[in-house]
């Protein structure tokens, strides 16, 4: 019986990115993976927290995305868990990103990995770094939301 994959399920998320950056635009890119990496991704052996995207020779690459090999990995393959992985996007989108990244303060950050039509996709954001006071505001907002949720929960009892 064939294993049916949900049309767009999350694999891994980079929660640290929304804390460190303001997202200007989001893009979806395909990811070039080896067979053992796809198997490990299916098992959830992915960490995206330290990942970032670079542009080399007009192509996008994600660096720091860690895919840990399964214990049952093939003996003829030498798995490299922090291998640089190529991202696939249309040339005109890449050119637009190159122009924006060359502006001061912009960077490309992987936000999440997800399944789409049986393929692994990487959501990439054009982001601008947050200043320290912006990060404090983010923490303050999060704490405020928690307080409200606690109050509502205790009130409903």
UniProtKB/TrEMBL annotation:
Residues 133-157 are annotated as: Disordered. InterPro entries: SmpB (IPR023620), SsrA-bd_prot (IPR000037), SsrA-bd_prot_CS (IPR020081). One of its GO terms (molecular function) is RNA binding. CDD domains: SmpB (cd09294). GO terms for biological process: trans-translation; trans-translation-dependent protein tagging. Its main location: cytoplasm. One of its GO terms (cellular component) is cytosol. Keywords: Cytoplasm, RNA-binding. It is found in: Cytoplasm. PROSITE patterns: SSRP. It comes from the Bacteria. It holds the Pfam family SmpB. Belongs to the SmpB family. Required for rescue of stalled ribosomes mediated by trans-translation. Binds to transfer-messenger RNA (tmRNA), required for stable association of tmRNA with ribosomes. tmRNA and SmpB together mimic tRNA shape, replacing the anticodon stem-loop with SmpB. tmRNA is encoded by the ssrA gene; the 2 termini fold to resemble tRNA(Ala) and it encodes a 'tag peptide', a short internal open reading frame. During trans-translation Ala-aminoacylated tmRNA acts like a tRNA, entering the A-site of stalled ribosomes, displacing the stalled mRNA. This is SsrA-binding protein. It comes from Ramlibacter humi. The lineage of its organism: Bacteria, Pseudomonadati, Pseudomonadota, Betaproteobacteria, Burkholderiales. The gene is smpB.
């Amino acid at each position: 019986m064939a294993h049916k994959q949900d049309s767009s399920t999350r694999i891994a998320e980079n929660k640290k990115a929304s804390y460190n950056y303001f997202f200007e635009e989001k893009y979806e890119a395909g990811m070039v993976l080896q067979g053992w990496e796809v198997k490990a991704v299916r098992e959830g052996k992915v960490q995206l927290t330290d990942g970032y995207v670079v542009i080399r020779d007009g192509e996008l690459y994600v660096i720091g995305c860690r895919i840990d090999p399964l214990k049952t990995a093939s003996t003829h393959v030498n798995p490299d868990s922090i291998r640089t992985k190529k991202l696939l996007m249309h040339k005109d989108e890449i050119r637009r990103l190159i122009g924006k990244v060359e502006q001061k303060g912009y960077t490309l950050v992987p936000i999440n990995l997800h399944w789409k039509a049986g393929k692994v996709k990487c959501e990439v954001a054009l982001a601008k770094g947050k200043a320290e006071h912006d990060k404090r505001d983010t923490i303050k907002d999060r704490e405020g939301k928690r307080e409200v949720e606690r109050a509502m929960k205790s009130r409903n009892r």
